[in-house]
Every structure is written in C-alpha cells, then in structure tokens.
Amino acid sequence: MSYAAAFPTTPGAPAGPRGGxxxxxxxxxxxxxxxxxxxxxxxxxxxxxEFRRAEFTAIMGPSGSGKSTLMHCMAGLDTISSGxxxxxxxxxxxxxxxxxxxxxxxxxxxxxxxxxxxxTLTALENITLPMDIAGRKPDQxxxxxxxxxxxxxxxxxxxxxxxSGGQQQRVAVARALTAKPEIIFADExxxxxxxxxxxxxxxxxxxxxxxxxxxxVMVTHDPVAASYADRVVFLADGRIVDxxxxxxxxxxxxxxxxxxxxxxxTPAFDAKGRTS
Amino acid sequence: xxxTALRNLLAHKTRLMMTALAVLLGTAFVSGTLIFSDSxxxxxxxxxxxSLDDVAVSVTAxxxxxxxxxxxxxxxxxxxxxxRALPGVATVRPSVEGVAMIADRHNNPTGGxxxxxxxxxxxxxxxxxxxxxxxxxxxPAAEGEIALDESTAEKTGTKIGGTVRxxxxxxxxxxxLVGVVRTDNPRVSAGGSLAVFDTATAQKLFGKPGxxxxxxxxxxxxxxxxxxxxxxxxxxxxxxxxxxGAKLAADQSEMIDEQTRSIRTTFLVxxxxxxxxxxxxxxxxxxxxxxxxxxxIALLRAVGASRRQVVRSVxxxxxxxxxxxxxxxxxxxxxxxxxxxxxxxxxxxNLPDGPLVIKAPAVLSALAVGVVVTVLxxxxxxxxxxxxxxxxxxxxGEAPPAPRSLVVRNSxxxxxxxxxxxxxxYTTTFRDRSGLTYAMAGSALTLTGVIVLAPxxxxxxxxxxxxxxxxxxxxxxxxxxxxxxxxxxxxAATASALMIGLTLITGLTVGAVSANEGVGRMGKQxxxxxxxxxxASYLGLAPEVGKKLAGRPGIAAAVPLRTSGFxxxxxxxxAVATDLSSITKVTYLRVTSGSLADVRGTGAVAxxxxxxxxxxxxAGSTLPMEFYDGKRAAPKxxxxxxxxxxxxxVLTAPALVDPHxxxxxxxxxxxxxxxxxxxxxxxxxxxAFGGNPLIKVESPEDLRRxxxxxxxxxxxxxxxxxxxxxxxxxxxxxxxxAMSVFERTREIGMLRAIGLARREVKLMVRLESVMIAMFGxxxxxxxxxFVAWSGGHLLRSAFPQxxxxxxxxxxGVFLLLALAVGVLAAVWPARRAAKLNMLESIGAQ
Lengths: 276, 845
Prior knowledge:
The complex is a heterodimer of chains A (about 280) and B (about 850).
Chain A: H1 3-6, E1 23-34, E2 41-52, E3 56-60, H2 67-74, E4 82-87, E5 90-91, H3 97-107, E6 108-111, H4 123-127, H5 129-134, H6 140-150, H7 165-178, E7 183-187, H8 195-210, E8 216-219, H9 223-226, E9 231-236, E10 239-245, H10 249-257, H11 267-270
Parallel strand pairs in A: 3-8, 3-9, 6-7, 7-8
Antiparallel strand pairs in A: 1-2, 1-4, 4-5, 9-10
Helix pairs in contact in A: 6-7, 7-8
Chain B: H1 2-11, H2 17-51, E1 57-60, H3 77-84, E2 89-95, E3 97-99, E4 101-102, E5 116-121, E6 134-137, E7 145-149, H4 150-156, E8 163-167, E9 173-181, H5 186-189, E10 193-198, H6 199-205, E11 214-219, H7 225-235, E12 241-244, H8 245-292, H9 294-302, H10 307-346, H11 360-386, H12 407-427, H13 436-486, H14 488-521, E13 531-535, H15 543-550, E14 555-568, E15 571-578, E16 591-594, E17 604-608, H16 609-615, E18 625-627, E19 632-633, E20 636-641, E21 650-652, H17 654-657, E22 668-673, H18 681-688, E23 695-698, H19 700-709, H20 711-743, H21 745-753, H22 758-792, H23 808-825, H24 827-835, H25 838-843
Helix pairs in contact in B: 1-10, 2-8, 2-10, 2-11, 2-20, 8-11, 8-14, 8-20, 10-11, 12-13, 13-14, 13-22, 14-19, 14-20, 14-22, 20-22, 20-24, 22-23, 22-24
C-alpha cells in the first residue's frame, strides 16, 4: 500500500507542522468505556476537543479524570468506544493496526514520563530511531537545529545510562521533534525530573512551539508545568469542563480547586496504564 | 526463607518452564536409559534361563576347531551313546550347526552374509524337534530335502514341494522344500534365515560326517544337574567340554549384563552431555531471575535477611525446581522405557518381552541427578544474589547495572583456550594412541576455553552478522544486533549450549567421514580389475571357482588370491599367494628390484618396500616364516615391489602356502574383462555358478560404496543421541528470548508507540535468535573441525590412508539447521513480543 493511500490527505496539503490547516488533531464525541456490566467505567464521555497547529496545549485534571486516556486515544495508542479522532486529515477509526503504526511513526511524536529510551542506542541513535524505523534519512539541517534547541550537542554519542534524567528526557523530546510530526503528545514529561530539569525541559517544549512551530499536547497535573502552555484544557470525570488561555500557575491552581476531582476510581480503571 | 523460595517458584511458573523442561528432558534421558536397560537385561535373562531350563548339561567338542584334528576325538554317535547310558539322563539331543546360504530371487543370500544358519532336525521321543515346530509340511528326512523358517520361505517365494537353491561353501545345491518351521533362533528374528536338514545331511553339508556340534542333555526329574555334569565330564574324553545348564545360563547372563552395561554407559554419556547443556540454561535463567529480582532481594536484605539466607533461598528454589522437573522427567523416562522396546522391535530389533523393571537405584539416581544438576547450576547466580546490597532496595534507578567487566573472564578463557590449542597441536606430533591423553585433555580445555571466551567472541560475530541483518532488514536488524550485544554473557551462555552439541556432532561427522573415505581408499587404489569375486561366507572360495572363471569367454584374466598367516621372528604377517604370471593384469604392481618371474615354487617370495624397510630385507636376503601349523620355511626374497594395498606385504606362489592351509581356499578372485566385455559380465559370472548365493561379484565402485554404507547408521545413532542435547539447547534459546522479551517489555511498548510495526518487532526477536543460534553453530563447527583435525593425526600409523575430509555439504546442512533452529526458537517469544499491549508495556516497571 502506498504511503499516500494509507493516509488520505488533501492533495498538496503540506505535511509539516507549518501547514495551512489550522487544526492538527481533533476529537469529536469521543467516548471510551472500560469493562462491562457492573465493572463498566466511562473514562471519556463524549469529549470534543481541537488542538491547533503551533500551539502548546496542556490537559489537566485530577487523578482519574481521563486525561491520559484522552491522550492515548488521540495518539492512536488505544482504541475508542465511540466518536471520532483525527490527526490532520486522517480519521484514526478507519486505520488498521499496520496503518495506525505507520501513522504514529510518521505523524506523531511521543514523550513519556519514564524517558523510555533504548539503553543500547546512543543519544543520537535514539533521536533518529523513528526515522530509522521508517527507513528515512533524517534532514541533517533540521536535526542539527533540534539538537541545538534541546542543548544536546555535546552528548550525542553517550548512552542513556551516561546521561542525567533531564538529559534523557531532552533526548526523548528531540526524538519526538526530529521526525517533524504533525503533533507531539507528552505524558507527564516532567514527572520523573527534579524541578530545575523540569523547568528546563518545559522551556524547550515552549521553545519548540515558538521557534519550530511544533504542535504539542501535554498531559500534566502540575499547575506550574501547565503555565508554560498557550492553553489549558480541564478534564473531570471524563468530560471537558473548562479551558483557559494564557494560563498562570496560580490561575490554574485556583481553577483546579473547583474541579470535582479527588474522588477515588475503580481499580479496573487505574490498571489501564495510566501514568499519573 | 523456604516459603519465599516456594512463592518465587510459583510466581515464575511460566518463566521457569523452559528451564524445567531442560531438566526434565535430561532426567528423562537418564531414567529412561536406566529403566530400559534394567528391563531389557532382565527380559533377556528370563528368556535365556527359560530356553536353558531343560538343559541339564551341554557337551561341545571343546577347544578351537582349528587345533590339530588328530588330538581331538570326534563328538559322534559313540559319545552320544556314552552320555545316554549315564544314570539320570533323560534325553540327549545331538545338534549340528553350520552356515547354509539360501538363494533369494536375485541369487543373493536371503539371510545376509552373517545370518544364514543351517541346523539338523533332531526329533525327540515324540518324533518332533521341540526347537523347530512344524507349521506346514513335514520334517526333512532325506538328503534332497529341506525345511525353512516361515519368513525365509516367504522371501524366497518357495511353496512346499518347490525347489530351494542353496550353498554351503561350494557349488549350488538344489533341495526340495518339504516343511516350514517356526523358530525363536535369535539370528532368524534379526532378519537371518534358517535351513533345517535331517541330521545325516546336515553333518555331510557342514563337513563333519558323523559328528555333532553340541549334545544337549536333559535330566530325569530329581537329578542333581551339577553332579550329572561332573559324571558326563568323567565319562567322556578330556578334550570335550561339558557344562551345566546353570553355568551356561550364568555365562549368558554375564554376557547380557556386559552388553547392557556398555549400551547403558554409552547412553548415559549422551544423557550427561544433555544435562551439561542444561546447566547453561539453568544458570542463565537464575541469573536473569536474580537480576529481575534485585530490588526484592535487596529489600529482604534490608529487613534483616543474611547473605547466606538469600543464597539458600535461591538454592532451595533451584532444588525444588529440580525435584519437580526430575519427578516429571522420571515419568517421561518411564514412558520412554515402555515405548522404546516396541519402537525398536518394530524396526527389527527383536527384544524379548518382559515386565518393566523399576529398581530403586534408577529412580533415586534420576531424581538425584536432576536436583544436583539444577542446584549446582544455580550456585554461581546465587552468589550474585548474595552480593546485592540492601541499599539497592531504595534506589529508584531502573537502569540495569553496568555490565561487569569481562577482563578476568577473558583472561581465564584465553589461558584455557591457549592451553587446549597447544595440547591439540602437540597431539598432531603423535602418530598413534599414545597421544590420546593430550587429545582428550586438549579437546576438553579448548571446549571449556571457548565457552569461557564466548562473550568476547560474540561481539565481533554479532556485529558482523548484525551489519548484514541491518542491511537486509533495516532497523529490526540493528535493534536485534544491539539486543544480542547488550548482555554478552547471556548471549554467550545460550550459544554455548548449542555449541557443545555442534562441536560433538561436527567432530564425530568429520572423523567418521574421513575414516570412511580412508577405508574406501584402502585396498582399492591399486585395483585395476573389473570385478572382485568373493564368497558371501567367511569360508572362502574353493579353488575350482578361479579355474572355472579363467576359462570363460569375455574374461581376460581371473586371478585367485589366497592368504595365509605366518609369523616371522615373532611378528605376525600375512602372505598372499597368487598366480604371479597374470597378477599385473588385475592390479598395478611396480617391481623396484629383482624380478617377479623368480617368485615360484616354495623357495622364493616378493616383499613390499615398506615391509623390506621395516624388516631390513632386500633382494637376496632370507625371510624366516613359521606357519600356524607349526611348520617353518625360509624362502629367499627375490623381488621388492612398491607398496600395493591389494597384495599386502609378502607375495608368494601357492606352492609355498598351500601345504600349511587346513583347507585350500581362495579369498577372492580378481577378474579382468576382455576389452569391451565388462558390462554385463557380473550377471554372466553369477550365471556361470548357477545363481549360487555364495558368489559375490563386486566392482571397485561397489566396494567403495559398501564401505561408506557402514558409517551412516552409526552416525545417525550418534546424531539421534546428541539430538537431545541440541533440543535442550534450543529450549535455552527460547528461554533466553522469552526472558529478554519480558525484561524489555517497556522498550518494546515504546518502540511500538513510536511506530515499529508488529511484524518488525517479530523480526527483531527472530533475528536476535538467529544470531545467537548461528553464533553457537559457527563456534561449534569450528571447534569440532579443529578437534577432529588434531585427533586424526593419532590414526596415522594404524591407518595410513586416513586423511581429514571436511564434509562441507553436511556442515552446510548443520548451519542451515541452526538457522532454522534460530527461527523456530523465536516463534513463541516473538509472538509474545508482538502481542504486548502497548499502554501496559510502557507503564510496566
């Protein structure tokens, strides 16, 4: 199957992050239900949300609000129960596993909480891994810019075990950026970092949105982390309850206090790979 | 701590499955061998004692048949009467035995060259011979009559009243089939044939008119058999041998024990190899389990468990695993012991029926071996567990500890390998068995050294192979390479298990094939004849055969070869007597001094160059000869010829050796066809002798093929027995991969998330498996060839034609099989890796 056939896009529409279409990813009436009968849990309840290009969005909410599930569903890591999700012009529901894998490879970047680098590869090899998988040569100019942006120039031949946590996470960010994806999903990227490294990393994310025109969606429960975003989407009980532009840490914290969060969820839900 | 061990064991059931299976197979091999050999041994003993039940005394002519006939009284009717007259004797059955070849439809011996038995029908008081109950027809009673066993009658397609063509040691004889008998003669059940004649005919046929081979005496009830034996002995001349049935039974039992013991030892050696291979898997598994459990063990240490308790907990876990696996292995071994005889019998082994004999030593040793091997294999990993510091419980770092340096290991491996290689190189300076110690020690050291060095060796191999794989399959190949390099010890241990099996298989194959080719070259290089005519029996050919052939149309020359043993200054040698005027027509013979024409009469011989050199002879010197009839001769050496492997060392005229032969027989007749007549001559020669089953006509190609045909069953048996070691090694590969997939769950999840397709994940695991398997195979093949090469030098003096031949086609097959093994071993782990749930995997700790 040809690459174009796998991902129907508007002819001539640029694939890069600086494209003409304003929306990078969109969910419409997205629901996600786990279990059946008595153990049935609605993780996402008819969520509709858009992430615009070159915008840094933070998804916030108390534990169990469904923020990680939303990210997983939108990134094609998890199946959805109803509704629709799109990355660019591609409807995820129409893709089989093979094409979904290709879509993740070519159009989505990931940054995980637990760095998730391959210990056997050097920093540079980890960064270019998605390109290697795709069998493409990285764009050297772009690669240099990304590496400089995240400040890893001197450490490219190091293995992950020789890098600090902050450096490892920057490698993960560089890996996500190098393939010029449509959108990057970051799941608690600062969760395992000390506050200084965390602030640095968030700076880099911010920088890549502003300087490199990257689209980033970040799940977090840290109001300070959220304050680096252009926009914050609040989730509670599987619904979007509010949204804030130009957030500050204090404003986010105030808004959070009002959310109906904190109520414990069933273990079945917790077992579903949530990272927060 | 016992409870911890038990819990751990139960918690890691699936992860320990392959390890348990390895122990299980090893102990099944041990217990199966022990129970099988006990059962078969006892069944044989039962059968023997049953068949000897009514034998009170057995009388044979005694001594060797070749001793001076003058000193020896014949075991004849008079002896029978003497014994029959003794008190306490119920019956005396005089039996005659010999070789009688029955012609099949192609004029070949039906029972083969070694299984063609001929016997007499010795009716008892009821007029029947209980050994040979008649199925059809009647017993043979006249010279022209014969009875056959059922399968021979069927194979030759003869009906009652039909004609059977047969031969003993001369011309073909025609007999009328009058009966078909049943028999439990072991040669017949092993595929041989049985011909039954009346006593007088049998005696005549087998060349001893009026003589018997054995008298079987049964006693009247209540007679003391030992006393009877003594009386029989007293009543007969001293040269006869009288033995009680009990003594015969004991002797046979002893013989059976010896045979089963040697079979058992052979099998146990192979079982030992399998268990040794299993050690690598067990050690690998426990190393991995302990690495995975580092935090848990550190926690135990933090809450107060001592190092010794930690070690003991690991060893108890290993012991429990070993016990469970060996108990299951014992069950499997029992099954093997039940089914193996049936399988062997279906393939013509003819083992007697008997109950399964399960002795306590067999059971206990199988269990003990399983437990001891498992605990010993887990001992080194348990030391690692002891080294885990309590503080590691608190470290949040999930990065694997930096791999320990291999410097010490490489140094030890280097020294061992160097010593082994040196010993093997030193072996090559020997020409006979005196270098065996060096060969054995060298092989063991080299194998151990290479195993110790394997982690070091794995790197360049995996890099090279990985580069290849990356070129063919992109990122999967690259990731597979990195994974195989990640833990060189693990990769090496897994590959070593496979290497051991392949070293042995390759070494055996190279040695056997080389020896076989050497045998094929032996005695054939100098042959220029078109056919060699031989007797199918060991008795040789009557001289008439050569004479008859010489006169046939289409035959340019028919040269009989006659051999006679002699001693010269205490050195045993063989003399070949032949027609020297035409010998050069059938073999390439170069005379270096003197003249062959002078080798005539009783006063002259020709010798080979190497014999002349060894014995300090030259043309004109005298060769003292002492023949086995005690007579001496001192012929002159009149010619020296270049070494010839058809004729051997000492060449004479028949006149010199004939007087010293008990019966003048030719070993073979070499036939040279007239120009253009070679094709079809074989059938003409056969026809010339009336389709005599004794006459064997072989071309030089036949001879070579016959030699090489002998090697395969033995090699195949060895392959079969070593196959178990290879199967266990394959389990090891599966085990390592499954554990690796488990350890790398998160990585695999991440790779899937960032776009590695399921197919590529599978390919990655499969390629790692293939790399490990190929590494083991290449190491094994290399070591095996080297060991076979150096060991081969020890054969140089006894077997000058030996030259190492590497059967590349077979080696290629081994490597292909290793490739297949790699792919196969990865099936399950690769599927697991590809099926991993991405989200769960990424979140996994």
